[in-house]
Predict the 3D structure of the following.
Amino acid sequence: MKKKMIYLLLIITAVVLTACSVTDVIANYAVKSFKDLSAELGEARYQYDSGQHTLISPNGKEKFLWGERLAIEVDLSEFISAGLDVAKLTDFDVNGNILAIELENAKTVTETEKFSALKKTVRTNRNALGFDEDMGHFGLSFGNEFAFEWAQHLDKNDKDMVFLLNPMPFIEAGLITEQLENWVYTKLKMMKDGKEYEAFMLVRFYDLI
Amino acid sequence: MEKTYKINGMTCAACAGRVEKTAAKVGGVKKASVNFATEKLTVSFGGDAVSVENLKKAISQAGYELEVGGEAKTVVIAVSGMTCAACASAVEKALNKTDGVLSASVNLTTEKATVSYDALKTKISLIKKAVDDAGFKALDTESKTAVDEDRIHKQRAIKILWIKFIIGAAFSLPLLYFAMGPMVSWWNVPIPDILEPMKYPLNYAILQLALTLPVIAVGYKFYTVGYKALWKRSPNMDSLIAIGTTAAVGYSIYSLIAIASGSFGAVENLYFETAGVIITLILLGKSLEAVSKGKTSDAIKKLMGLAPKTATVIKDGKEIEIQIDEAEIGDIILVKPGEKIPVDGVVTDGYTAIDESMLTGESMPIDKKAGDKVYAASINKNGLIKFKATKIGADTALAQIIKLVEDAQGSKAPIAKVADTVSGYFVPIVFGIAVLSFAAWMIGGRDFVFSLTILISVLVIACPCALGLATPTAIMVGTGMGAKNGILIKGGEALETTHKIKTIVFDKTGTITEGKPEVTDVISADESDKRLLLQIAASAEKGSEHPLGEAIVRAAKKENLEFLKIENFEAIVGFGISVNIDKKSLLLGNKKLMANKSISLEALEAQSDALAGEGKTPMYVAIDGKLAGIIAVADVVKPSSKDAITALNKMGIEVVMITGDNRKTAEAIARQVGITRVLSEVLPEDKANEVKKLQAEGKKVGMVGDGINDAPALAQADIGIAIGSGTDVAIESADIVLMRSDLTDVPTAIKLSKSTIRNIKQNLFWAFGYNAAGIPIAAGVLYLLGGPLLNPIFAAAAMSFSSVSVLLNALSLRFFKKTAVKESAGEKV
């Protein structure tokens, strides 16, 4: 009797989990849109090395990484030109001019195929994934208002690939936002725990189509 | 001929209107009337025979169900002597062959036969005989009375509604929680991560759909009935609910598909909770409505429940307990102290006091001896009596009262016709307003979702169920309260007209007075023997049914006078009698009779005037064309008469006394009770004319009387009120019957009528008020002026509340107190 109950519970759990993966439309469409983004950027903007998948922005200065690590990397050269003292970013992982923002406690994915890896990444780190209805963006949040977003419909959006940074640590480290090139310092609507709020962000976006 | 059927499936006044129209179109049907509150259709047939099947078919095609077989009853009879299946089969066959048996089934294990039979064609004793004739023995029966079955049926319906509501609420509350919770900014609603609308919108939508489907399932009748009615181009309340909620669910399913297709923003366009909560609230309203509707007929149920279920019959010197259905006319029935009288009859043996308060409202027990009538359901207080059954089943006084009250409760007051007419046009108009509002907001630039919300709100808030309940529920409670107080009001029209009475005419003898006059004076014209005068007069009046004649006969008997042989008796209606005694011609009657026969009254004029001045009625005796004397008779005024007339005067109602008696006597009685307008010396046939004259003054006239001679006046009056102790003809002619001889019931009846009509008006105000105020708000008029927009859920709550408030208001009539009359007469109670 006990065995039967356990089997039944396992079957129910399996059905629910399968159903949930099917009904998790945000994750499914996020991967689908990411495929479009990747296709638009082309293979030249994709790298794979020892379980680490990387998608590089058109100008090569920003990267989105998934697989071994789940992170974004930003070249801070332009920030330094705008007054940033990298030495003051003591709480961040900065290697040379490259700033890496990683999702804490991210679950490692070992898939070699990039989209399978991304699919598994978003599923295993599902809490980091969201959808911004106003912008039409899927986004992976790395915490502390650092994020990577991509458009659901590249053809309908003028911000297809977006990197978002919390400006405060950079401003405190000497960055003068008005002197920063290519990045936009602007107020955006943000969401936390289902609640909306507004905050200034540093935004770097690319319109691919 | 009239017949009443139970109709199932009606949900609002529009349904009732539809059934009425459908029934009226069936060939042979003269008139059809539906009481929405009692769910009964009363059909008047013309000369042509009407097939019930045709009627049933027509009603069914209209989307409702007509229950046939109002006379069908079921009885379970214990059968002994069956040993095998063949025995059971033999009993079954014997029963099924019996005339009037609709169906019979025998259970060998329980040794019981369940028989469904037509009570008009057969009776239990015949069914039992069929069992006995088949070679077995029919034992006790377990029968369910119509009251029990009706109660069980209604209780089951209420229980089902409550279960539906509970299921609806069990799914709607979590639905509301998940749907509205995330929108409440100040409340951090805990929702499982996997159901977060912004993270897992499809899960969120599917959950809502899953929670909505059971609610739709329990409310499926709104859809089956509503769409059927719509298809028949006769939309009703269910059509409004069905369309409103279908729009909400349809659009939500569209949004769900949109979410599944990647339009995640559609998660904000889910309205499953609107549909779910609307259905649940309406189920709540319907449940409360069913409970309240049940209470409106409490009075009649109490009456029906009064009848005992068994009777003890004396057969061959033995006491046998039988089911009440088995009692037959002529049975000698034994009733012990404390037991109820099972059927109507005449006491043959014993002496007791019987509480007849259930019939008359009179709390004092009445003494009964051999020869006195007893009535079913009255309570034998202290003695053991035997009586002979004279009326059984539907013929008992109780059954007649129940029928009268039921008919009244099923009838429509003229004011109800206004509500019916409005209800008939209401639903299509609401559809129009809903569609126009939707179109207007769309054209005005609002999005589809906003306009859809308006459409749903208008459809839901405008359900006209309160409108349909406003009049019949008040009439049911009003007539029920009347019956409880011994005032039988024969119909809604009577109930409504009564409150308009401006003049009320009372018959004198038997109405204002006790109607049992006694001889007070015997005056001889020529100093001859007064005893002889009384003897002659009594001999002439022997056998008379006139109260004055009876008084003379009683007086002669008291004096032990012998009755003389009479010849050529002639009753001169309204005047007196003419008779020959001992070859002498005798005239006995009033002043007019003497005047017609040119007999001078001069010799006794002074005495006559003096007697009349004292309120006594002088009866003149003339022998061989010469006045021989006067026999004065006086009637005693009922103790309640003065109170009643004072109360009526205080109510601003003119009171008139009408009598065939002479003016002076009439005025003397009038003075005693406080009546200032007297119509005296009125012949019986002129009473109706006098009423007509009063009506010609532009007043609504009520007539209170008790005798056969009052019947035409009772019929002529706008409202005829018969005293219950009066004759059958008077009761038949009247609109209101007072079960007691207490005249304070007259102002009580008028007050009850006023209270009921006021209650109906309040109900209509509430019903119309909700719709009049609700529809513009739902259509967004307030929003247009900067105010709030009505959420469809609140629209549903308001709609349900409107029905409940109307019912509660109708039920408040149950607190109507009779004491109010005596207070108004200036006495402390």
